[in-house]
Write a structure and sequence with these properties.
alpha/beta; binds adenosine-5'-triphosphate; binds magnesium ion; Rossmann fold; 3-stranded antiparallel beta sheet; 6-stranded mixed beta sheet
Length: 211
């Protein structure tokens, strides 16, 4: 369960939100929509343990501190962060892996066609050229990383914004398959990406309103 009770957050002076509450039950799929700049990413980063609330506390699957929370969540952030490592290491973050499972994840994240076309495949070193990947390639690596981590809670911030319609649809379908028994919070500008979700909130003026 995720529970935020009367949490507030400000970057410098102005509050992005104040006294915001949200409870998400295990296995629930929750969508958040809202205008650009309303605070969706700020909120998601708080649930991921990356933004510390300026008041009150949060509880993510029993964890209240960032170090504990980070272990419980898989995150696909709005701007994927790639490290100067190979593609495979960017997905596994150095953890042991099973080839068969990786193969499934590569296919699910629509990475196979591209990685198969590279001379070194998944071992291709991104190095300092991580910036040269297309936004969609970087985003799909971030999705594969989240699938690999396989935490019980998946936090998605515009996970397919850089993908074309067809790619986005198939990756979203794969995400839905991977997360059928997980708790999901999905931020998006595209409400149609939230079909089948249990609850959808609109974020406005620092509040979440069921939409
Ligand atoms: N690191 C930061 N430092 C200071 N202000 C920030 C920072 N990140 C975001 N903000 C501000 O906080 C507010 C909320 O930003 P946030 O990124 O959460 O919006 P959003 O709803 O995710 O927008 P979008 O739909 O464009 O992604 C904005 O006014 C933004 O300018
Ligand atoms: Mg955002």
């Amino acid at each position: 369960m995720i529970k935020l009770e009367n949490v507030s957050f400000k970057y410098e002076n102005a509050y992005v939100f104040e006294n915001l509450s949200l409870t998400v039950k295990d296995g629930e799929k929750v969508g958040i929509i809202g205008e650009s700049g309303c605070g969706k990413s700020t909120l998601l980063k708080m649930i991921a343990g990356l933004n510390i609330p300026t008041s009150e506390e949060i509880n993510v699957d029993g964890e209240k501190d960032p170090e504990g929370i980070i272990k419980k969540v898989s995150v696909v952030m709005q701007s994927p962060m790639l490290l100067p490592l190979s593609i495979i290491d960017n997905i596994t973050m150095g953890h042991d892996h099973d080839e068969e499972r990786i193969e499934k994840i590569i296919e699910a994240a629509n990475l196979k066609k591209w990685t198969d076309s590279l001379p070194d495949g998944l071992n291709t070193y991104l190095g300092d050229r991580a910036d040269e990947l297309s936004g969609g390639q970087a985003q799909r690596i971030a999705i594969a990383r989240a699938m690999f981590k396989d935490a019980g809670i998946l936090l998605l911030d515009e996970p397919t914004s850089a993908l074309d319609g067809e790619n986005a649809a198939s990756v979203l379908e794969a995400i839905n398959r991977f997360t059928s028994d997980k708790t999901v919070i999905h931020v998006t500008h595209r409400r149609e990406h939230l079909n089948g979700y249990d609850r959808i909130f609109m974020m406005k003026d620092g509040k979440l309103i069921e939409a």
